[in-house]
Amino acid sequence: MKILLVEDDSLIAGLVSKALQAEGYNVEHVLNGEDGYLLLKRNKYDGLILDIMLPGMNGREICRKLREEGSRVPIVMLTALGSTQDIVRGLRFGADEYVTKPFDFKELLARLGTVIRRSCGETAVLNDWILTVDDLVFDRDALSLKRGATPIELTSMEYGLLELLMSQVGKVVTRTRILQNVWGLYTDPQTNIVEVYIRRLRVKIAPNGEPELIRTIRGRGYRMIATKGP
C-alpha cells in the first residue's frame, strides 16, 4: 500500500518512514504542504499522514481542500497540537484519525491500518464488518481477531492480507492480486514477500494447532477454506 507522509521534521519523518516500511508500506515523503497537496492531486495514495504546522500550506488547509474536492483518502493527522479544541478542529476539517506528538509507533500504525481498512470496507462488495471462517472470527471495525476463544494479534499488513483471503473464502486469490491489494504494487518486486507473510499468517491463526485454513494452489495463488461442514 502506498502512503504519503507530509512532515517538515526530517528526523520524525525518517523514523515514521522506517516504521511504515518495516510493515510493508511503500512510503513517499515531502517536507511542505504545497508539495504534498500537488502530489495528492496527481497520484493515488492508500493513506495520508499529515502534520498540521507545515510551511507553504498547513495540514488543516490540505485536509479541507481534499474533502471539498471529494477525495476520500484516509487521513491521519500527526501533530504536536494536542488540545481537545485542536483535535476537534482537525476532525471537522476531514481527518479520520488524530495522533499527537510524542506518539507511540504502534498506535500510529494501528490507527493508520484502521482508517485504511474502513476506507476499503466502504467500497468492498461485502458489507459485513465481521468475517468468519470456521472458528476464525475477524471483526474489521474493532480490529479484533480470534480463533475460538484465543485472541490473535497481527501486524497491519498481516491484517490486510487476512482480510483479503477471508473475504474471498473458497476462491483462489492470485499472488498478483495480493501484491496489488495489500502492498499497492502493480509490478512484481521479484521477492518472496507474499510467501513470507502467508507462512506467518498460517502460524498465527493456528495458535493451538487448529486445522490449516490457507491452502497453496500451486501455480495459481492461495485459497482460504472452511474445514468444517455447515
Automatic annotation (TrEMBL):
Pfam families: Response_reg (PF00072), Trans_reg_C (PF00486). Gene3D superfamilies: 3.40.50.2300, 6.10.250.690, Winged helix-like DNA-binding domain superfamily/Winged helix DNA-binding domain. Residues 128-226 form the OmpR/PhoB-type domain. GO terms for biological process: regulation of DNA-templated transcription. Residues 128-226 bind DNA. The modification 4-aspartylphosphate is found at D51. Residues 2-116 form the Response regulatory domain. Keywords: DNA-binding, Phosphoprotein, Transcription, Transcription regulation, Two-component regulatory system. GO terms for molecular function: phosphorelay response regulator activity; transcription cis-regulatory region binding. The keyword Transmembrane helix does not apply. Transmembrane segments: none annotated. GO terms for cellular component: cytosol; protein-DNA complex. This is Response regulator transcription factor. The lineage of its organism: Bacteria, Pseudomonadati, Pseudomonadota, Gammaproteobacteria, Cellvibrionales.
